Model the fold of this input.
Amino acid sequence: MIYPILVYGHPILRKKSEVIDKNYPNLSQLIEDLWETMYKTDGIGLAAPQIGLSIRLFVVDGALLVKDHPELKGFKKVFINAKIIEEDGERVTQDEGCLSLPTIREDVTRHKRIRVLYMDENFVQHDEVFNDQRARIIQHEYDHLEGKFYIDYLSPIRKRLIRGKLTSITQGKVKADYKIKIP
Done:
């Protein structure tokens, strides 16, 4: 099932998501639906809050970026109850976009290296270190579980400059190449 993407202004996107267990109803189907929705939107990651579920679940697949970032080949994962337990290394600034913020792209500074504790789709626990683009993608999706957007890291002046675009999104005055759900 392909879900519409909740856009900026929807209250679920600002809530801290809840931990789930392996008995979460229809979890396997939900994960398949997240993949299907993500691929339909040409995304590289999708978090459950973006489809209206305030749970700690996201999927990532770096395939669309392999041409510019060959290290992303085969980077396809499910993250359940993820917790970033370390952030270190230099901080790198790079352009980001978000399915929940159609038409907006901004430079965001993130840690180059992170360590994440998470469960996969089979509820096998992992403690892994991710670097570079993998770390950036995970941090972006993880923010959704924490009720954050990448725009929260922008300077006050940048936030003021995009205020009009944000207002347009909340009012439904935005076009996207995928189904969206306005607050």
